[in-house]
Each structure stands twice: as C-alpha cells, then as structure tokens.
Automatic annotation (TrEMBL):
Natural source organism: Eiseniibacteriota bacterium
Enzyme class: hydrolase
Keyword Phosphoprotein attributed: no
Keywords: Aminopeptidase, Hydrolase, Manganese, Metal-binding, Protease, Signal
Name the UniProt record assigns to this protein: Xaa-Pro aminopeptidase
EC number: 3.4.11.9
Amino acid sequence: MAYTANAAHENRTFTGGRAMPSRNRYAALALAALVLPLPCSLSADEPIPPAKPFAPIVYQARRARVMKALGGGIAVLYARGEEDADGYRPDADFYYLTGLSEAGAVLVLSPEERVYKERLFLKPRDPDDEHWTGIRPDIGDSLRRTTGIERISRTTALGGNLMGLLQTTNTLQLISDPGGPDSPAGPEMELYGKLSSKLPGLSIKNRTDVLPGLRSVKEPRELDYMEKAIAATVSAQHAAARSIRPGVEENWVAGLIDLEFKRGGAVRPGFPPIVGSGRNSTVLHYPEHNQTIGPGSLVVVDIGSDYGHYSADVTRTYPADGHFTPEQRKVYEVVLRAQQACMDMIRPGVYYEDIHRKAEEVIRAAGYRDYFIHGLGHFVGLDVHDSGLYRKPLQAGMVITVEPGIYIPEKSLGVRIEDEVLVTPSGFRLLTAALPRDPDSVERMMRER
C-alpha cells in the first residue's frame, strides 16, 4: 500500500496508521465462491482457523521492556481503537502492550513503583450497551490472569490513582503518538495538563521513540503471524490474477480477495483492498471498485490480509488482456528494475531514505521520475503502515515494503510492484517470494484459470 509521505523527507517518528475506513461489503462474494475455481494453495476443505492471542507473558515482557527504556516516571496510554464494518479495531500501541480489544481502556506504567508497576483501567460496564456490542468482562482473577496485570480498576478511579503515584515522582512520560502540530491534543496530553495544573513542578518527557523502536523489530511469533497473513494475501493475488479480464467488475475481484482472506484465517482485511483498473490504476489509494475492467487496461491490486491483528501488504499489476502491451511492459520493467535495485541494498545499517533515493535514481534514468509520486515503502506489522523510526538505520528483524511505482494519468497507465522484506543479519529475506514479479511469470499466472 503506497506510503504517500516521501520517505526521503520524513522528519518525524512514524508511529503507525490509524484504522482504515470501512468499505461496502462485496455483493459478488457468495456467487464468486461457487463459480470461480479456488487457488491451489488453499483447498476448499482446508480453511485456516483465526489466530489465537499470544499468552499474557508476551505482553508482560513487552511492558517490562518499555519500563526499562523509560527508567522512571509515569506513562499513560489510552486505547484509541475505531469501529468499522468489521467491528472494533484496537489501536496497535495499546494492543501491542496488552493484547486487549477494549474501547476506552487506559494503561498506566510506573517503573519506579516497588510492587505494582502496571495498572489497567477499564470503562464502567453498561448493560444496555452490551446488548448491542457484547458482554464485557468483570474485574476479577479471571481478567487478571488473562491480562497478566494485577491492578485493574474502572476508569473512574484513574485520576485518584495518578495523584497518588505522583507523590513519588514528578515526571510524566509521553509514549503515545502526539500527531501533527495542527491535530487536536491526544487524551494523554490533556490528562497531563490537568495533572500539571494540580501539581506544580511536574515535567513531561518526550519518549515517543520507545514504542516505534520496539515494535519495528519483530519477535519470531510476530513473524509467524505475518507470514500467515502473507500466505493468504498471495492466495488472494492468485485468485485476482485468474479472474481479471475485460468485462469483469473491479468489485467482483475485490470480493474474491475477501473470500481468500477469510479462508486464510482472517477475520478482517489489514486494510480495504485496492483494485484499480485503467485510469484508476494511477490513483494510489483508489477506494471505489465501481468500474468495469476495460480491454487493454492495467489493473493494480494492492491488498493485505490480517492474521491475529498482523497485516500483510502486497501489490501486483496485471494486464487485463492477459499480456502487457509493449509500452506497459516497458514501464513495468522499469519499476521492477528499481525494486530489485532497492532490495539489493537492504541490510542492517542502511537508511531507508538512501534506498528511496536509489529508486528515484533508476526511475529518473528511464525518464519517468515525475511519475514516481510516493515514498518507497513503510514498516509493516500490527498496522499496515506500521510504527517505526524512519530516520534510524535498518536493523535485523524489521519488516518493510519495497514498492516503487510509476503513474501516468494521461495514459491511464499505473504500475506498482510491492513486496515485503525481512531484514536479516546478513541482508534480507523476501517474504513474498512465492508470488511472481517478472512480467512473463505474471502473464503465466493469469492463464492459470
């Protein structure tokens, strides 16, 4: 999924994307399952069950790493999830530290406390609301075992607890994404302001680098879930490739993609699928899916399944007729050449902005620099545009996308190729290697009907 901020000019910590907007459900889905063949990688009788949550000890260890990095003070983190067509989507920072999908919850970390260094606050229960949204847990030992947090209260007790904790420290640590300078203040900063008005002498320390630094280096268990999301996405790309032809609706292709995600263990997509044909192939985050695929057009399919809250992000560009025209192939090969040149640079210690400049260099040499209009890629994880420090060198364990593109609206010609790469101690591993990239292989994949 194209990262629209130019990475070469990124000047701040990028702490992940927000929940994507909802889309209309796909009317063609059920019929598609009956009419079109299923990808060979997932047989019809072998759907993958949804992911199980990690054990509480995983989230305890993550919170311990955050507190070690902070050293002292108090950090407050609010849950910022959003509702969409697939239900409540928890925000990635809060989920990373708790494993909870609880709207309105608050986590408090106090590393200097002798015994109870972490506290969880949940909204009061509302029986009427729960008739619509489901039963929420009571506070008790069962919830303490589930979360690994001993001190759990309702949010009505948050202020009093913080006033007590601030008797032994005068430092408030900001670990949440503050947003841009023109965006409204987050709930943490609002709360810190209220506390400072009551207790003069408090200081606020900027530690918004802590969570991006931790989240960007993936644990083995995270990589396992991400590779499952990638496998479902690869199957969905095969389904899309086989279904694309002149006269087919973009929405039909999107419906097939959603089916493959579900069969691959997803309960929701990582982000709304992008299926753009013709001039729509030049729209980076094309949302509509309301066009009929025309003869001679290109179709950009930018999709990512979700497995256990971890997203994939893979893009391919397909010729509607099953073969590229000479001009389409020329542009496609420039994009592929730029992508491979960038991948060849990936190893620990390299800066993302230098890799982006390599893409610019290759595309400029081919005469298309003005048509490369977005950043080279982004981190991937709990968010499709995941948390990470773009101005720091790459480290082993990071997962990034490499997705150069060329978009020529006046010719209705858009090409993007996007793959996920794991940075290894000696270089990189292409996580999406199972999906063809070169134009001849893409054409062969489309003939597998």
